[in-house]
Amino acid sequence: PGPEEEPASTPCPRELRPPAPGRSTPAPNLPATQSAALTLVWRVACVQNSQPSLTRCLTSGDVVVPVANCGVQEYNSNPKEHMPLREYISYWLEYVQGGCSSPRGCLYLKDWHLCRDSSAEDLGDVFTLPVYFSSDWLNEFWDALDVDDYRFVYAGPPGTWSPFHADIFRSFSWSANICGRKKWLFFPPGQEEALRDCHGSLPYDVTSPKLLDTRLHPMLQHSSPPLEVTQEAGEVVFVPSGWHHQVHNLDDTISINHNWVNGCNLANMWHFLQQELRAVQQEVHEWRDSMPDWHHHCQVIMRSCSGINFEEFYHFLKVIAERRLLVLGQGSEAAQEENIGLGLGFQQAAFDVGRLAEVLASVVTHPDFQRVNTSTFSPGPEELLRQLQDAVAATTTL
Ligand SMILES: O=C(O)CCC(=O)C(=O)O
Ligand SMILES: [Fe+2]
């Protein structure tokens, strides 16, 4: 769909249905917005709690933030630079005063790790996380290692936008608008295939008139228009796993965005990692027979392209699994009393262990995982799988 071809506006389900704690049936993997009580509570908490952190950062201005230039395409993304927040804010004012134009281009503060970079001891001092989003294994994993996080702040004037993409590791994301509105264009998993150009590449901008060129985009006639959602100020958008999307800020907009993996999309992540490895293996296929350690090199390349390899995926599973086994080992009452497991309780731990066991059972039988040297892993993959399966058997008999 190009600018002349206005995409059909499909009504968005205005009900937030991410996986709720303790549910054994996962919620549907569909986009949703929430604007009622949850958001109100969250907004109040966010505004109050952000006083000592976000506002302090905004006023201190010395903090250095990542800024993308939306007017310059670099592969299917935008080049980023780092600048003091103060400088970005004066750019922003100048851009708005100039009628949404600036000789410096269209700059977007994005992927700012406010929580990681903040001096706050406790995430709760930065903002309050709604319980619906609290089963968040990526952040739980990084917090346990105290290295990184997948919690971001985005801020930019009208006209700033994020190019077409699906989220890292096929994670969910959620996006909460502190102020301003965003227009989202969503494509269900698989529908991005019809948007590929004749070289097999996905588009950078799905609203570009270039997509109307049938020689360049021969499969476009088979595509459906995107699901279009306008996210109002104060609303939270749930971004389902594997849905490609493109996002445009319609106003001066500040949002908090988290990437998010848990028992409901863990299998999607594992599926994605297998696809990524296959893509790497195809790319370097011609050296398979002549290169010693070809399989190991594929894992190295995969890590640098996708951010993770099979060994690290096992480590991720292990960290979460050990924490859930601890909750189950304490018994339901003790776990609830002590509020271990991020306050999600015994039932959530039982659900998570079931999903971990399913995915780990597939990981240990994968031929490329069997090539990884696991002799120093503690516990080893088979042992961890046995512990998980025992825990599943014990919780299903309760
Ligand atoms: O708000 C944006 O510009 C992009 C957000 C996004 O892609 C996400 O939350 O997954
Ligand atoms: Fe995204």
UniProtKB/TrEMBL annotation:
The protein's required cofactors: Fe(2+)
Keyword terms: Iron, Metal-binding, Oxidoreductase
Pfam name, any one: JmjC
InterPro entries given in the database record: JmjC_dom, JMJD6_ArgDemeth/LysHydrox
Alphabetized GO MF terms: 2-oxoglutarate-dependent dioxygenase activity; catalytic activity, acting on a protein; metal ion binding; sequence-specific DNA binding
Gene3D superfamilies: Cupin (2.60.120.650)
One biological process term in Gene Ontology: positive regulation of translational termination
Catalytic activity: L-lysyl-[protein] + 2-oxoglutarate + O2 = 4-hydroxy-L-lysyl-[protein] + succinate + CO2
Residue ranges of domain JmjC in the record: 118-277
Domain of life: Eukaryota
Chain spans, region Disordered: 1-30
Record GO cellular component, one term: cytoplasm
Family the entry assigns: Belongs to the JMJD6 family.
Subunit structure: Interacts with ETF1. Interacts with the ETF1-GSPT1 complex.
PANTHER family (UniProt xref): 2-OXOGLUTARATE AND IRON-DEPENDENT OXYGENASE JMJD4 (PTHR12480:SF6), ARGININE DEMETHYLASE AND LYSYL-HYDROXYLASE JMJD (PTHR12480)
Protein name in the entry: 2-oxoglutarate and iron-dependent oxygenase JMJD4
Organism of provenance: Spermophilus dauricus
